[in-house]
Every structure is written in structure tokens, then in C-alpha cells.
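Q: Can I see a sequence and its folded structure?
A: Here is a first one.
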Amino acid sequence: MNDTIGVIGLGTMGIGIAGHLLDEGCTVKGYDINPERLRILAEKGGIPASSPSQTAKDCSALVLMVFNGEQVMNVLFGENGAAESLKPGSCVIICASVGAPACEQAAEKLEHMGIHLVDSPVRGTALSCETGTLYLMVGASDEAFTAAKGVLDTIGSCVVRAGHKAGMGQKAKTCMQAFFSLTFQSTYEVLALGTAMGLDPATVYSILDDTGASSNIFRATARNVASRQFTGTGNPLSILDKDMKIACQTANTCGLPVPSIAATSANFSKAMEEHGTDDVWSAILPLEKAAGIEVKFDIP
């Protein structure tokens, strides 16, 4: 590719995407409210911008890796918003988990300006961003999908069409995040329950790992809990807390009772009160505190 692409939101994932696009021959402009992230972009060969509007100027595509739906609307339509600089026929690609409503609202406004919106939340790690091996869940019209396909194929190794309109990708990501989070929460609860009953948590782990219900996610969760690895794993509690709130709100809109998702969301929110800067594995800590235990053990 030799297009000019904008990236707004240069955190761990956004800077990885920007770096990979640069490696693939794109001109990359970027914006973040943190000046340090702009410095890192410049070191990689990108062009730091002073606002979303300046970032979007002359770009054929604009990738958003921001935190939530409010930020999507602000960077696109707020003061010095990107939408005012985008040309008709260009596309906005939302790669963050922000919920379907924001994507639907943004798509409607951009459509009147002749700009495509592609709803494409991702699954992957910082390394996936840097190597172009993200898993993309895409909601977009055929025209928007075609306009963005070059960028999607560059940053992702697997592009799954979740639906043919904006918002469908977010809905698929919500299901995925809920599935992951329920696995995390069930692992916390059974390990804490076994420990509270006086069992060796290593024994509980071994028994569970020898069942058909075991999985790589179960093992990774147990490993981080057992070693008390609550930071530095690239799985922020704040992201899962936000995404589980989105799952609860979406289920409520559908009139669907989701007691397990609601309970998991409540526990994540409780963990956020004291461990908001930690990774998601710290969500076991409210359970430990309630029972006066510590689930610490060596993985057999």
C-alpha cells in the first residue's frame, strides 16, 4: 500500500497498527492527546498531527483506536473533528470496542457527507497489531467494505464479515468479550471457592484442567492468578469493565436477561474501585477479600 492513512488513538494497539502500516509503505499521520505517543509515532517515521482534523486531511482512510463511543463522536464531530477534513469516498474504520450505538450514529452522520464507516473491532495483542495479524469483526455496507478492504487486509490476517451495516461488528465483539469475561469470572470463582473450603488451589486447578471444560483461557487465567501477575500482561481491567457494561446495556435493550454477564460486570466494577489500573486478573481480589483468602499456588 502507498496510501495516506490516519490513526487516532496511539496507545499500545494504535501505535502498533500505525507502525505496521508504515512498514507496509503507507504514509501515516497520527493523533493522541498524550504528547509522548506522538513522539513515538515520529520515531517510527509517522507524522504527528495537532488535532483529529489535521490527522484526517488528505487521508483515504482514518483508523480510530479510542476508548469508547463518546470519544468516537468527539474525534469525528467535536471541535477540530476529523469529519470536517475527510473527503467524500474516504472511510473511517473503528477498530476499538465502543458499542454499536456510537457506530450507528457516526455512520448515519458520515453518510450524509459521502464518507464510509467501517465498524471493525479487533481481537489480538500488541504483537498482532505490529505484525498485521489481527482478527477483525466487520460490520459495513458492501460499498464501505470495498473502500476499506485494502487497510483491513493489511492490518488483519482474518477478516470476518459480521454483518452488512455499521454496528454489527461491535455486536459480535460484545459477544466475544462477554464469553471471555465469563470464563475469567468462573475461573476466579471456582479457584476461590476451593481455597475457601480448605482445598489446595493447585489440586483444584489440576482437577479442572483434566476436564472437557478446560481451555487455554482457563489455563492463562489460572496461571496469572496463581502467580499474582496482576499487571503488565496487556489485558487491562478497564477495557473488560467497559465492555461488560456494553454487554449489559445491549442485553437490556434486547429485553434479554443475562444474570451471569450482569454478575461478572458487577464484580469487574467492584475490582475497578481499588485496582482500576491493574489487569483483568485482579478481578479475583474482591472475592479473596470477602472470604479472607489468597489464591496463590504453583501450577503443577
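Q: Show me another, different protein.
A: A second, unrelated one:
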Amino acid sequence: MKTAAPQTSRWRLLGDATRSGEMSEVAIEQSPFSVGRNATHRLVLPFPGVSSTHAALRLNGSEELWVEDLASTNGTWVNGLRIERPTRLAHGDVVQFGEVAFSVEWRDPSGNSRDGDTHELSHDHSAYLRAAKRIDELIDQRRLRTLFQPIVRIDGGVAIGFESLVRSEYEQTPERPRDLFELAAVRHREADLSAISRELAIERIAPLVHQRAVAGQRRPDLYSNVHPKEAVDERFPRSIEALRSSHPEIPLVLEFDNLLQVDSADRRLLFEELRGLGVGIALSELGSGISRLGEMSVTPPDVLKIGGPLIALLSPGNARMLRLCETLVEMAHELGSLALAQEVETPEQYALCRDIGFDLAQGFAVSRPLELEQIAGGLDVPDS
């Protein structure tokens, strides 16, 4: 890689570098661009979770920016994953040094952001800063909508529960959960956003669940996502205990996406504690990496959610993918887990998943996420 930076840097980090609540912009003006707690670094982050010499950013011309962790204690993370080798950054990524997170931005000489932005929110600098500042208000004032996506028994298409999905009520903030959590990362509030989203979902669906309980009917399961930062937060088990105490009538299933940073023994203890509270466990995003197989073998979930490319590539002519999915479903059943096909987008995919032996399904082929009012007229959930 080149060691000389261009005279005018096109790469920026946007975030709260001082953790004072004020957003700032850091231009990557030279290469290497060192990061650490020590005052000699180009980007000084004087916080306990940042190592004295933590990481280095390197430019390769004006088009490429790379980040390398320098044996830091708490790691360098890109989009929620801890990096083990030099990693190329892209416009819109979130890079995190210990607990201090920044959004990565690239601009051309005219000040325009790179095309192909992965965010719904344009990376106009002032717009991004305004949106990031509003994350605190959005979380603290609970200005979030909740949608409910049906989960059905694949053999009959009858709903057995719903996955809660969070949306922002503010026009100035992105709507997609992924983008909301990336903004929350800049404010170090991913765990708060995850917890508040669950609390609101439970509060909003509780009256409907209560109606079915009073009528002696089966109550729908509520699937709730757990952000990786919340899963390692020491407050997490107690918050779930409080929710179970206030709403014991709601069958709660917690969905974990990425627990690779949690030691296997700690993960097993966490799952045992949650199950002791009457909470179901689901592991998701198996299709995004073979590492999920290791998670499942150590602590088998109640529900294994299989999606991503594994479902997207299903077709009658793709015998290898069909067999791979069959094997995963068989493995889930051997471990005592239900197999749920997620991101099922077409009737053909739904039929293939049913023939393979999946137990449950969700996705646009089943239903788009619904407003509370759309399911208030009657929850289509079987009594047994």
C-alpha cells in the first residue's frame, strides 16, 4: 500500500470522538493514520476501552481506505464484526475502536458522497449529523414504530407468531433497522435501541395476546431480535427478567444474530438463564457464515432460522442447494430445534422449503410486515 496521502483527503470519519454528545468529522489526512489513547496518535481517543496504540488506518491512493487492529485489548470492529486482519472499508461502514464508533464517508473533490450508498439516508454531511443527533431523542422518547411479520407453519400456512421489527417515526432518520442501528452505533446506543424496541413491541401486542389468553386460545409467539451489543451488556438478563415479570402471558422468543464475541461457556450460561425465565431461543443468519454451525452445536436453539443465500438460491434445478438445506433441516431436527425458513420471497421458494421439511416460514411470500392495526382484527393463530 502507498504510504503518502493525497493532499486533499476524500475519506472522513463521522462520530462523537470526545463522547461529549457533539458530532465531529475527522479527515484521514495522512497514511498511516494512527488511532489510540496515547496523545501521540493522529486520532486520540482518551477512553479506558481504547488501547494506548489501538489501530491504524491506511490509504491506498484516494479510492481505498484500510483499517488494521494493532493487537488492541478490546478490538477493532467493522459493521459489528471484530477484525483479525487488515480490512478494506467502504463508504457507509461503521468502524469501531473499542467502544468508540464512527461512520465512514468518502467524498469526491466536489464534496459529493460516493455513489451506491448503502444507507437510505443520504450521506450529506449535515444531514447525517442531524440524523445521528436525533438518535438519542428517538430512543429516549421512544419514537419508534413496531411492525409485526407473521411466522407460519409451513405445512398449513397458519400463523403461530410474529417477529417484531422496529421503524423510526422521524422523517429525518432512516427507516430500515440496519441503518438505524448504524446511527445508534455512532452514539454508542445499540444496546439501548435493541432493548427499547423489544419493550415497545411487547407493550403494543400485549392487549391482543391477553384477549386470546382470556378466551383460552393459543397465544402467538413474539420473536424479538437481540443486538450483539445488548447480548453482552450485563443489564440484559435483568431486563428480560423484568419483561417476563410484567408480561408473563407473552410467549417470548429471543433471536440472536451474532454471538461470536461471546465465549461458548458464557453463551451456554446465558441461554440457560433465559430459558429459566421461560424464554425461547432462536439463532438466525445461518446462511451468512459457517460459524453459525459452531454456535448451534454448542448451544442448540429452540428455533434455527435459515435464510440469506441458502433460501435465495433455492430452485428446482439447484440440486446441491436443495440437498444442503435438507441437511441443515435434518441437523436442526436431530438437535431438537425447529427449522424456520426466513426471507422466503416467492411461492416457488415457499413450496421448495415445504418439500425440504422446514417447520416454519416467514418472508414476503407469507406476508409483508404488518401494522398493529392490521393484526388487531384477529390473530390467525391455531388453538393447538
